[in-house]
């Protein structure tokens, strides 16, 4: 999970759709589901682009397929950070109260087509025990994790830590959000992160000439710099390497004195 810098303006198709709602051409109760195919596509493309094609929660790569007009279509889910079943401007249904953070509150604002409430998440994972991200979260509201695009809370995401075995180290007060609602330390995700770090460890050992990285010398230093560079910046196609922030955290933790050369 990482801070997401939004492009700052919603796709034109979404803006036009919201105008239709205001003008009464769309029944307000339908809002998100009635979004046209074109508006939905434009929204998906923008959300994926803003995130460098990484899932907003697990940072797995968002794969794409080639669309008819030669544009890449991301294979993703549109995630409502605040669930659309609850944040809909209406009195919260009694059966949904248990999913909220504040059970006393009666009505919540309508964020169903609010651009700052929408993110790109990885597509459904079939295996039940390993459901994660928004498929797992479903109707739940996250109570501690702040909105991923809120500048004020950038620090929250920068402080996330990871073990070299691929686990996110989660402070006690965040466990419900990270583990119960999003399942970000499920076996399959931990394994995938560990696998990527293992491959990088092998590259480092090769560069150092032996497994003692402390005596790696200049060749190792260059390798670390190259890896920092590789993971920090998106590629020419705007895509980051998956698990970007986990890898950067491990490299910086292991080699605190090595910086990217200017
Ligand atoms: Zn995900």
What are the key terms here?
single chain, 262 residues, 8 helices, 7% strand
Q: In percent, how much strand structure appears in the residues? A: 5-15%
For the largest beta sheet, what order do the strands appear in spatially?
A: 1-2
Order of helices and strands: HHEEEEHHEEHHHH
Shape: globular
Structural class: mainly alpha
Task: Count the E strands.
Answer: 6
State the distance separating the first and last CA atoms.
27 Å
For the biggest sheet, the summary is: 2 strands, antiparallel
Present as ligands are: zinc ion
Structure commentary:
A hairpin with a 5-residue loop joins strand 1 (64-66) and strand 2. The model has no long low-confidence stretch (mean pLDDT 92). The strands form three sheets. The protein has a two-stranded antiparallel sheet. The chain has a domain at 12-158. The protein has eight helices and six strands, in the order ααββββααββαααα. It has helices at residues 12-22, 37-50, 133-137, 154-158, 175-181, 187-208, 217-232, 244-254, and strands spanning 64-66, 72-74, 77-80, 118-121, 161-162, 168-169. It binds zinc ion (ZN). Residues 55, 57-58, 60, 121-122, 133 line the site of zinc ion. The site of zinc ion has 7 residues, from loops.
